[in-house]
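User: Teach me something about this protein's shape.
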Amino acid sequence: MKKGFFGLLIFIMVCAVNVTAVSAACTRFTAQTEVDGKNVSFTGYDVDGKKLVKIWDLAGVLKNTVCMFDLSWNSVDKQLNILPMYNYSGELSGADYSTAEPVCSESAVYLKYNGDVTEIPAYLINGSNYVEMNAAGYIMGYDIRVSDDGSVVEFLAGDTVIKKVRLNTFTDSKCIALTFDDGPMKGSTEKILAALDKVGGHATFFVVGEMVDEYPYLVKSIIEQGSEVGNHTYDHSRLTDLSDADILKEIYSTSNSVYAAAGVYPYIGRPPYGAINEVVKTAVNIDWYNWNIDTLDWKYRDPEYVYNYVMENVKDGDVVLMHDLHPTTAQAMEKAIPDLAAKGFKLVTIDELAQAKGKENIKGFVK
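Assistant: First, the predicted structure itself:
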């Protein structure tokens, strides 16, 4: 039977060693369903017939809400810690587990649900933890029914279909990441999101804290659309000119603004001007991403120029730099996004590109 959402507690922390590894030959798919009247999608992998997904993706769609995780920075060791899942209203679901030790094993994760702890297999794929969709759904209280061709998974409470998820094989060719810096900006960001929505695409928005404070609703819109938010400092300071303390202040202030706006913390960053060194990387332990295609949209501010530059230069695996501050960039994207989709490009976030290619292979990843 279906259990109540407020009883859902998920602890997942995967050991980095000795977790079952999956070869690069596994087949990636996208899963589409509906949440609160909106089409949403998430990525999974098929390994030997097992449909593997991230547990929080599955929990979010089954509970018909956007599952928020509180990602906090430990000031002592600067490690990103996964704390308990929060419900949609931002309140902690159930008891306070914020000081509990993460539950972890060498070859599995433990799913804690309504006080019951169950071990299920875990798979490490491109640095992220995946579990079998059917097993996780069953533990969360649903019966599972799969179509004969494996393309539809239904989650049932008794005879009632609670959620229907459609699976489409996802080829890793022609994936590109459109990225937008310095926003969000009223009007421009909204137009880009609308264009992405029409083709089922996503992008990554590296936001500036000052702009987040001015337009917090736009950050929430980015998350709800399925796109990704990255950290671009609070006031666009050149991080290589700052002390450790000031670097942390720039990053943490922005992360706190994003959390206040949308209930999530950004876990990737882009340094302003692309300027980064070992001091910055040591001060803040997040993944940093620059780019390999620079449209110079900030300089030309011409929709046709930006459109033509993107269409003529992008290739599979590219990371494209633009700025949603500028209305001309939004105008260019209203034309380019559907045309890129028509040419067979899959428009993905940095995280989705990392899942497809491995983050070490992303053009612009700062090693």
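Now, about its shape. Residues 5-169 form one domain. The first helix runs from residue 55 to 62. If you'd like, I can walk through any region in more detail.
User: That's plenty for now, thanks!
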